[in-house]
Amino acid sequence: MTVRYVKSDVIAVGAIDWDRRLFDKLIPLPQGTSYNSFLIQGSEKTALIDTVYPAKSHELIANLKKLDIKTLDYIIANHGELDHSGIIRNLSRGENSNKRQVQRNFNVFAAFKRR
């Protein structure tokens, strides 16, 4: 998925997975699915709402790189399933497939329990 501006300060940065055929091993996805992740850029802080399924991390990272995002102040997951929270750990540690350094000053708010 390419970067898409919803508004000047709200940017879709997620990914489309045309090959995904099942959701939760139960729900058929004959035409794939999308992982909706949004970047919100305020006057002082930047927040990422949801991440993507881990197999699509390279697309989210590439989109952040296109926008020259070096710092995320907040990462918010709507819930703990991997299609929303799949790469929070990677982003908060600065690890990603492009070896791009993302600063570690994250305030991570995730709606899931660590196992």
In short:
This protein has 115 residues and is α+β, with helices and mostly antiparallel strands. It contains three helices and ten strands; from the N terminus they run E-E-E-E-E-E-E-E-H-E-H-H-E.
Characterization of this structure:
By secondary structure, the chain is α+β, with helices and mostly antiparallel strands. The chain has one domain (4-110): Metallo-beta-lactamase, Chain A. The protein is 17% helix and 29% strand. The protein is built from three helices and ten strands; from the N terminus they run E-E-E-E-E-E-E-E-H-E-H-H-E. The chain has helices spanning 57-66, 82-85, 88-93, and strands spanning 4-7, 10-12, 15-17, 22-23, 27-28, 33-35, 38-41, 46-49, 74-77, 107-110. The strands form three sheets. The chain has a six-stranded mixed beta sheet, with no helix packed on it. It has a two-stranded antiparallel ribbon with strand order 3-6. A two-stranded antiparallel sheet has the order 4-5. Strand 4 and strand 5 form a beta hairpin.
